[in-house]
Amino acid sequence: MQLFRGSLRLSTIKEAESGYEVLQWLYNVDIRPKLKGIQNMRRLLAVTNPHVLMIKAEDVVDDEPARRVERSGFLTEIAVQLRR
Fold it and tell me: Per the CB 3.0–4.6 Å rule, which of 23, 52, 69, 80 could disulfide with 45?
């Protein structure tokens, strides 16, 4: 355990777990819009502009551009380069 703490300069296992979760997020190359994320942004924007609530998140999500990028193989190549 001392080697773990000394080498990585982490004081707790929880810090290591948090760092791992962040890295998983960074290396995730799924670029498709997430409905839950759009809904959360809608909720946050409604604080300053209540009219935003009139728009359904489902109506603004278009994942076709992301699907085209995925089909092109570009994301696969980026993932391979990130793993090197």
Answer: 52
Structure tokens at 60: 């603004």
- Crossing angle of helices 64-72 and 74-83, in 10° steps, is 60
The pLDDT value given to residue 41:
92
> How far is Cα 54 from Cα 60, in angstroms, rounded to an integer?
12
The predicted model scores a pTM of 0.52
Q: At a CB cut-off of 8 Å and minimum separation 6, what does 5 contact?
A: 11
Q: Is there a contact between 57 and 38 (Cβ–Cβ < 8 Å)?
A: yes
* Contacts for 42 with CB less than 8 Å, ≥ 6 apart: 52, 53, 55, 57
What is the pLDDT at residue 39?
Answer: 93
Report d(CA 45, CA 18) in Å as an integer: 28
